[in-house]
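Holo model, S-adenosyl-L-homocysteine. Inputs:
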Amino acid sequence: MSAPLFPLFAALCGRAVLVVGGGAVAQRKTQALLDAGARVRVGAPLLQPELAAWAERGLIEHLPGRFEPAWLDEIWLAVAATDDDAVNAAVAAAAEARRVWVNVVDDAEASSVHVPSRVQRGPLQVAISSGGGAPMLTRHLREQLETQLDDSLGELAELLGRERLRIRARYPALGARRRFFDRLLAGPVPALLRQRRGRAAQRAFEAELAGGERTRAGSVVLVGAGPGDPGLLTLRGLRALNEADVILHDRLVSAEVLRLARRDAERIEVGKQSGAHHTTQERIHELMLEHARAGKRVVRLKGGDPFVFGRGGEEIEVLRAHGIAYEVVPGITAALACAAYSGVPLTHRDHAQSVRLVTAHTKDADDDLDWVALAQEKQTLAVYMGVAGLQRLRDRLIAHGRAPDTPFALIENGSRAEQRTVVGTLAELPDAAQAHAVGSPALLILGEVAALAETLHWHGAAPLRYAPALAAAA
Ligand code: SAH
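Output:
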């Protein structure tokens, strides 16, 4: 086994680098080198159009013709990027003879330097290499890191770079400096940068720099978990779950999403569904405050989107009133997910120009609804509610003028493995739901577009039609 590679980051700014080759690969390498500030000479008989344009504009120097060793004069680093193995080998040999570092694209053996996979956030770079032996593995790791590292890390690295000397002056001893960094990274500065509040971040940094040891302030991130399919969680949501100390989650949040959370995070179910396990909204507020005050990073994980029939607004009002820092990460709400996963476009040039998200969870609540507006045609209603209220909903909509043959799609467990869709017309809605024993959670899409589920469905089983015979048999 050969010795492992020694990792380095090269300061190429203003230094001459040779790229041999004039095709797409050479262009990609040239771009990366230009980004690092290198003076790039590209040697090839012919340049592809973009490289030729760069040469025209003086961004690069073109060395025309076939490779000759003299091209390596004054060169710090060479890249062989032709599709001709013999030329690449000649470049490698000539570079080796002159002790110029050389990278031969896709040829680890012939290269004296390898170019790693990398994840970049501003000045912060993570380089990954398997020594050329397992490029698929490094690619996989790179993708994982891409999802995990927030964009704002670049700004954090910039801030720390800018303030390096002041930090050093304030905490000359290494141990104290290390403790300062731990505090800083666990404190409000990274979150403020995430929130694109640069000035507030700078102020928080100053306070942290001036202050001695302090206890960590807790915070709450309201995260929308989406409808169930864990692939519908956002990257931000995933990152918040990775960092959480405590997760307060709704009953509606799927096990698959919860599995993505940090393993040692404390998980507390605060399902508000009726039944034995009942947590009042007040109790949820108390739990958030309690854990945040104890310095914990709390994730309040809610089904769908926190601000769509999720009481997310009330929860952050409480946090604000008590001076607890918070962030909100949106989630895919049930209406969007159920529509997509049942093949029902919520708007459609021919069928619907607007969408309403409606809830009618309690009996009294629907007295406040504007039924005339809801009954208008050529619009789509996405109704969040229990199936128990469907009869009332149908009667009112028809009484206010919606055609009895308006199509509906009722989607149970949208986006999950168990998803079922029942389709039919408004007139038969409650009977259809009952005949197919539709349970919770289910979302109703009512409107002309709902008929498209029958042809456009793609996830899980085909939509179930209501057949009165089925009801009679049941
Ligand atoms: N904040 C959530 C909604 C909470 S209200 C969101 O944005 O999606 C709860 C209602 O949402 C349920 O009664 C049901 O109508 C709907 N719902 C949530 N998840 C669902 C799913 N996976 N499939 C179908 N309906 C769902």
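The pocket of S-adenosyl-L-homocysteine is lined by residues 227-228, 252, 302-305, 308-310, 333-334, 338, 384-386, 411, 413-416, 440-443 (CB under 6 Å). The CA atoms of residues 52 and 58 lie 10 Å apart.
Archived with the compound record.
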